[in-house]
Design goal:
By secondary structure, the chain is an alpha+beta fold. Helix content is 38%, strand content 31%. A hairpin with a 2-residue loop joins strand 4 and strand 5.
Length: 97
Amino acid sequence: MIFTYSFEDEAQQQYEDAIWWYAQQSIVAAKSFINRIEDLLEVICKNPYVGKNLSKNFREFKVKNYPYSLIYTIEEGHIIVWVVFHHSMNPDNKYPE
């Protein structure tokens, strides 16, 4: 079974902010970041338990070659991305309450 996914509003904003930042540096870097996120989401949707279970029911999967992780939950055939976490952010804010 392949799961579907969605971003919570805050995670969507974090994702868009990251894309914007990379686009300011280089369009190629921004496209590469988008491709990495899309590839990662495809992996998670095929095997949702691939991410590390580090807190409550939240799972985490690092984005290859970028200082980000996706924080997500699995809910009835659907992946919900709660945080697009930059590794320089305060880890106390990594998992939603």
